[in-house]
Amino acid sequence: MTRGLSATENINVESIPRRPSVALCNETQLLWEMEVCGEEFKRKMDHVDPQNWCNLTHFISEYHLFSLCTETNAERINCYWPNPLVESYIIRIHKHFFSNCTLERVILVDPPDDTLTILILIPVFLTLAMIALVVWCSKRSDILA
What we know:
Subcellular location: Cell membrane
Protein name: Receptor activity-modifying protein 3
Radius of gyration: 32 Å
Pfam family, one: RAMP
Helix content: 55-70%
Keywords: Cell membrane, Disulfide bond, Glycoprotein, Membrane, Receptor, Signal, Transmembrane, Transmembrane helix, Transport
Number of helices: 5
Structural class: mainly alpha
GO molecular function: coreceptor activity
Number of strands: 0
């Protein structure tokens, strides 16, 4: 039976196990930290020619540091990463710097008929060969055993 507690009973509070405290995400501080990371990224991107903004090789280290900054700061203030606030900030950065980087639509073309025929026939013949091998081995099980 469980014992009820009343106000007249003396309880040793220190003996009651405590649940570990969970730090909550401070969203205001998170937004501030994202702004700090974003401003640093913008300063570094000022040194990259805008014509090269669509070529990742020209700013990969700056982008890596921006991503690392957002992740480190989010985790430091007990926020998970990525989260909706961080994602929306990163999307704003992308819209600012990379909105004109979309490629023309790639037109998909079927492979030549010879290539297509080979790609179809190889698995068909391999399947038939495996079936023939299984049947042949099952008929010769007395010799193989």
